[in-house]
Amino acid sequence: MSSSLYALGRLAATRWRVVLLAWALVLAGVGGSAAALNQGFVNSFSIPGTESQEALDTLSQTFPEVSGATGQLIVVAQGDRTVDDPEVEQVVEDLLPPLEDLDQAAAVVSPFAEVGGGEISDDRRAAIVQVQMDVGADDITDETRDALVDLAEGASGDVAEVVAGGGVFTGGTPELGITEVVGVVVALVVLFLTLGSLVAAGLPILTALVGVAVAMLVLVAATSFFELSSTTPLLGLMIGLAVGIDYALFVLARHRELLADGVEPPEAAGRAVATAGSAVVFAGLTVMIALAGLSVVGIPFLTTMGLGAALAVAVAVCVATTLLPALAGALGHRLRPKERRARRGGGVRTPNRVALGWVGLVTRRPLVTTLLVVLGLGAAAVPALSLRLALPDNGTALAGTPARVAFDTISENFGPGYNGPLVVTGGIVTSDDPLTLVEDIADEIRALPDVADVPLAVPNPTADTMIIQVVPEGGPTAESTERLVDEIRGLEDRISDTYGVDIAVTGQTAVGIDVSSQLSASLLPFALLVVGLSLVLLTMVFRSVTVPLKATAGYLLSVFATFGIVVAIFQWGWASSAFGLDTSGPILSFLPIILMGLLFGLAMDYEVFLVSRMREAYAHGASASEAIRVGYASSSRVVVAAAIIMVSVFAAFVPHGDATLKPIAFALAAGVFIDAFVVRLTLVPAVMELLGDRAWWLPRAVGRVLPGVDVEGEGLARRLALQDWPRPGARGLHAEGLGLVGRRDGAVPLLEDVEVAVEPGQLLLVTSEQPLHRAALALVLSGRTAPTAGRLVADGLVLPEQARAARRRVALVRVGDGGDVDAVADVRAAVADGRTSLVVDGVDLLPARDRAALVRAVVTACREDGVAAVVTTGPEDLREEEATAREAGGADVAVATLALPTPAAPEPPRPAPVSTTVDSLLEGAR
Fold this sequence. Notes:
By secondary structure, the protein is of the alpha/beta class. It folds into 5 domains: 1-43 and 175-348, Multidrug efflux transporter AcrB transmembrane domain (Multidrug efflux transporter AcrB transmembrane fold), CATH 1.20.1640.10; 62-169, Alpha-Beta Plaits; 351-406 and 511-705, Multidrug efflux transporter AcrB transmembrane domain (Multidrug efflux transporter AcrB transmembrane fold, Up-down Bundle), CATH 1.20.1640.10; 422-506, Alpha-Beta Plaits (2-Layer Sandwich); 729-925, Rossmann fold. The protein is 56% helix and 13% strand. It contains 30 helices and 19 strands. The strands form 5 sheets. A 5-stranded parallel sheet has the order 16-17-18-13-19, with helices on both faces. Strands 2-3-1-4 form a 4-stranded antiparallel sheet, sandwiched between helices. Helix 6 packs antiparallel against helix 7 (198-222) and helix 7 (198-222) packs antiparallel against helix 10 (300-331). The radius of gyration is 36 Å and the shape is elongated. The two termini are 17 Å apart. This is RND superfamily putative drug exporter. InterPro entries: Acrflvin-R, MMPL_dom, Mycobact_MmpL, SSD.
């Protein structure tokens, strides 16, 4: 991956005009598509397959009169008046005609109507005028809402106060405010302090804004094909902006570090994208996988939210690996840190004294640090034990809005249950007396303990479907309302047996309860998915077992502590006023899953950037303790800056009035702060110090099957170091200090300190007493398996980093145990395919005549096609093969011989057959 990203970053920096033009065209294209295809976002929450949703869908067909949104005008008598006073009655009567003429109004129900009315409070001081709409809440126009508000304000006076509310005010797309800009400004300040240059600080902001613009416009255009929640673009904006700035910062910081070391801008851009960009791609993929994993819950609105946010992250990764290096290429040396600042440690080049002081403090008593962090986060997580989930209702709307004022007015005058009535429906087509049947079923429901009232129980006009409106004692999100839904559903069998009616509980309150229930049930499977993914990915990255376990445990601590803080503030109401909350209640039902998915990706991001530097130092010979300090000092500055930016961007969305976005933004800000500063920058070095060398332990069996992920570009660094070895432009096969340890039946040394130098047109005859050793060399030289020591270049390609490309240039011909008489044809076919190097193994298995023919074919390829060739043979046949080669090649082909050094460790007592062991090596290479 690092090699591909290196090429991409270098190309972007070199051809920066083309890349900038391409991004401009992308921006213009998605902008035009958004303008042409925009159908608007929706604000509905549905969960297909549940009883409540299926019943609601059925009602839209059998009882369309009650399937649309409902508007309300709540009339509250003033002074000592009641709704029975003539002047108050007149206020109500005067409202009815304009409501009936209202666009999108299907029916208006007076509180004084004999049938279907009766929405009058027990103290007769308030009444509700119901306005049934012919469309859902998402299709209500602003003109309709404004008309309801105008009617209410016009009717209010000394006689009565009229408030507009109801489900028609739950639609609409949340809007951005000035506070979101504050987060960007804070990010700019942090970037300037970190990078020491206003131009450099502006680049991550610019690229992040381009990324979120592209992602948001794609989402707007997608509304023509999918139903997207109104929260989807805001969530994508928040996440895309945060990760976009962070990812660009990681790449830009590495780019400027390389510039300060004297690397030219295009090369610096390529190396920055290959190293920091590899970690960015890895981190971005983990975030996208976690967000896309929200689809496993099976709730459409949550799936679209996750995919929308994943799109924003994907665009941020693309921007950081293409647009940023292009801008870096355009700016050239202007991004190079000043020498004065470099000497003072203004970038990330020199050790950070503050970082060294902190890491020294937390690792001086690592056990004490670990216990303090674990106990502290454990205490913060305690409130999470009382976590309750629910969807937002009008009670969480911003104070002063029509939806909130109406909600509070109804709760005060009628009781909280009137804000979330339940609807019980069922088919009654077989009944001879539908009115009596419906009333009998309503009486069954009235007898339940959590029922406040059953104001409506009627069949539809065709008498095939009934609806019974049930008012709970508690509000839409109260625990008693959840119990009532379960109690009514508990009557289903009894009512079916007694009355022959299959009832179902529906309505927006029941749908919300079902959504929350399914989300709660999905938490554990999703957590297992995220934790399992974390363990696998980190094991691949760090080639360690303990580091992933430590990282995952830290992630779980961060998640649970964040849940605890969110519950304490949003559910319990602790210090709620400081965060702009005027009410408390259950936590947003899909917040835990979104938090777990996002925090997972971000936590792994910081883990990779911090610990990979420690691993790099350890791999270069530093002790475990010294590696912690070196890695921490070199990466913590950027991690701190990235975390501050993340927290600032997320926190800027907390003052937002949207009830869905506010708790998500707060949870993400708190989660990133805890994970970055408490877990990664404090707990991680302490635990690493406790583990010592054991931190990098990996069972050999796991290492054999686990693919490697080079997020720090170690392979690229090796490739760049060997690109001019043994000399610029060298071709053929060259190896120095080559070693290979077998992977079957323990660590068996097969090659040790082997040197090879074969130029085009030359032939090297290799021999050894052990056929397995000769076969191992053939596999290594041809790029079929990776050496475990030394350096190897095949036709200018560094192995094993460029093994795939090398296999297209280096042919491997293996002679079978039974004597492969087609080996000569294989050699000729390899040359005909344009292979420039050739490795032939097992010549000694052929009869004498066939051996000679095969050697002559190889020599011919060297002489006529300039092939660099290596042929392995047994020691007893070496002289004969050498003579044949010299005779066939004459003065045109240089022939050399090599006896493989015998490895220090002995052969295993029962070696596997050569063919079997070679096959296992090939299997490992694949």
